């Protein structure tokens, strides 16, 4: 398994196709998930799906006001990004940031299931309180005529457990059928190549969405269980005394997790007033006048000062031009005097040798 970096300059379909290929390599990997090459491939796949999501947001491919029939066939596959991000994020190893990793994966799962529900792909959505098993159990108890409470009879509880088990088996059987159908359609698309029929490709994308909806719904229950375990571990770690005998260890501050999701509607609501933090306080012209006008004024004042100084010098020369002539004459006179003294000194040196007049302390 080789590490592969996705170039920013490539197109959206290429980035998504490369990320999906990396995800397939992870699914078929038979070694240790803690292997360095495996983790590098995980990070490359996560990066690819995040870039795909950002490009999808920038292009505005989806809206919650439309149905799945309104979405072009070539765009349906990009609805899979949150599901792939959830599955790939859960493959990241390391207990240091495991809590944030699992919580991020759950955010991706919630976004995927909610969007699928909005598009009418499935009636099942992410349950915030209790999960799907509790709902099935409550329905079974209600159908038996017994109240869903702690005082329910043993028979009603057994019936609820049986109903929950049967629902789980049905979901697993349905997932296997969808998985086989996805593989069959994928082979047809691979055999047809560029001449693949639009209906076949659309059926493949919708079937893949249904399969991943069921898979993500099942994975969410496992994610909730892991989050409970991690939260309990954090509490136990916080209550454990330090080596110095302190009552508790200070926990490092967590970095806020920011999952990359398809947020066109949220951004749109923010721009058009729903939740927008503040209104503009000035226009572009006002900002220019505030920031750039002092600089322009300072430059113009400097140029004006230079011009006034040059005018003063010019006016002074025009009013008394003889001053310049007298200054030149003075300089010429000084030069003649210096020349005469230098010549006299040279003549004296010609007539007197060096050391002339020095009697060496003799009287």
Give an overview of the whole structure.
The protein has 363 residues and is an all-alpha fold. The protein contains eleven helices and no strands. The chain has helices spanning 12-27, 36-59, 73-76, 81-89, 98-118, 131-143, 154-192, 198-239, 264-271, 284-319, 322-351. Helix 5 packs antiparallel against helix 8 (198-239). It starts with 11 loop residues before the first helix and ends in a 12-residue tail after the last helix. The relative contact order is 0.07. The model is unreliable at 123-134 and 144-148 (pLDDT under 50).
What's the alpha carbon Rg, rounded to whole Å? Answer: 42 Å
Number of strands: 0
Point out poorly predicted stretches. 123-134, 144-148
Give helix % range. Answer: 55-70%
Q: What does the overall shape look like?
A: elongated
Quaternary: single chain
Count every helix, treating DSSP H or I runs of 4 or more residues as helices: 11
Average per-residue pLDDT, rounded, comes to: 77
Topology as a string of helices (H) and strands (E): HHHHHHHHHHH
**First and last CA, distance:** 109 Å
Approximate strand percentage: under 5%
The largest sheet, given as strand count, sense and whether it forms a barrel, is: none
- Structural class, from helix and strand content? mainly alpha
From the structure above, extract its key features.
mainly alpha, 0% strand, single chain, 363 residues
Provide a quick synopsis of the model.
By secondary structure, the protein is mainly α.
Architecture blueprint of SSEs:
Blueprint: H1 12-27, H2 36-59, H3 73-76, H4 81-89, H5 98-118, H6 131-143, H7 154-192, H8 198-239, H9 264-271, H10 284-319, H11 322-351
């Amino acid at each position: 398994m080789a590490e592969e970096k996705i170039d920013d300059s490539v197109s959206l379909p290429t980035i998504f196709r490369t990320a999906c290929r990396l995800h397939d390599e992870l699914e078929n990997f038979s070694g240790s998930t803690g292997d360095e090459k495996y983790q590098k491939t995980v990070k490359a796949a996560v990066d690819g799906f995040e870039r795909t999501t950002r490009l999808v947001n920038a292009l505005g491919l989806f809206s919650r006001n439309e149905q799945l029939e309104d979405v072009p066939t070539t765009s349906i596959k990009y609805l899979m990004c949150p599901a792939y991000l959830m599955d790939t994020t859960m493959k990241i190893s390391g207990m240091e940031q495991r809590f944030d990793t699992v919580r991020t994966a759950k955010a991706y799962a919630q976004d995927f299931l909610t969007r699928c529900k909005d598009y009418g792909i499935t009636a099942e959505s992410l349950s915030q309180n209790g999960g799907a098993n509790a709902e099935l159990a409550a329905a079974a108890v209600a159908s038996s005529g017994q109240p869903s409470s702690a005082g329910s009879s043993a028979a009603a509880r057994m019936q609820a457990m049986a109903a929950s088990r049967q629902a789980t088996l049905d979901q697993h059987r349905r997932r296997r059928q969808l998985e086989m159908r996805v593989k069959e359609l994928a082979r047809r698309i691979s055999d047809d190549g560029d001449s693949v029929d639009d209906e076949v490709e659309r059926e493949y994308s919708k079937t893949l969405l249904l399969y991943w909806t069921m898979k993500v719904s099942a994975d969410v229950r496992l994610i909730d269980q892991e989050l409970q375990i991690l939260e309990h571990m954090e509490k136990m770690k916080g209550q454990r005394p330090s080596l110095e005998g302190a009552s508790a260890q200070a926990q490092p501050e967590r970095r806020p997790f920011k999952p990359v999701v398809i947020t066109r509607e949220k951004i749109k609501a923010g721009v058009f007033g729903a939740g927008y933090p503040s209104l503009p306080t000035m226009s572009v012209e006002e900002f220019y006048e505030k920031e750039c006008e002092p600089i322009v004024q300072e430059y113009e004042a400097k140029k004006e000062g230079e011009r006034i100084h040059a005018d003063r010098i010019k006016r002074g020369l025009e009013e008394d031009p003889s001053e310049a002539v007298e200054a030149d004459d003075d300089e010429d006179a000084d030069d003649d005097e210096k020349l005469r003294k230098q010549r006299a000194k040279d003549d004296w040196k010609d007539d007197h040798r060096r050391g002339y007049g020095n009697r060496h302390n003799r009287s």
